[in-house]
Amino acid sequence: MGTQKHSLTPNGFIKTLSLLHLGLISSPVVLSGIIYFQTQSTSFDLSNTDDIYLMIVPIVSVICLFLGDFIFKHSVKNIPKTINLKQKLARFQTASIIKYALVEAPALFGVVAFMITENMAYLIVSLVLIFYFFMLKPTKEKIEKALGLNQEERNQFNKLNQPIP
Fold this sequence. Notes:
mainly alpha, elongated
């Protein structure tokens, strides 16, 4: 008996992408918790006109969310229909990581702004971004829908523990 070569399965792909998602979401979650519990006095102030972060944090957040969504949709839309399922999944994973990073970055930026100013408004923005990030958790259904798999590819993807050819 020879050694069995490790092959990509749909279940393995979903688990890998879920672990990447969890790894990226954990940074802003852990950092926000640490910073919040180490902060002595917090305030919620939207009226301080000298605070440049009041404009920068929301603008950067919105830009990153739209940019991440645009890049993801554009990347997935441009996956050739002629390539095999394994190649489609690899491109989907790349597009997903870019989208995740563009949600993680402004969440971390908001936490840093909170750390500098002790203004809860920035932590709230970060928590909203973290919640949105959580909603991006990859599932089999989301992947199938985003990739627009044909019937043959869907049949391959539904065999969760079978290697993808």
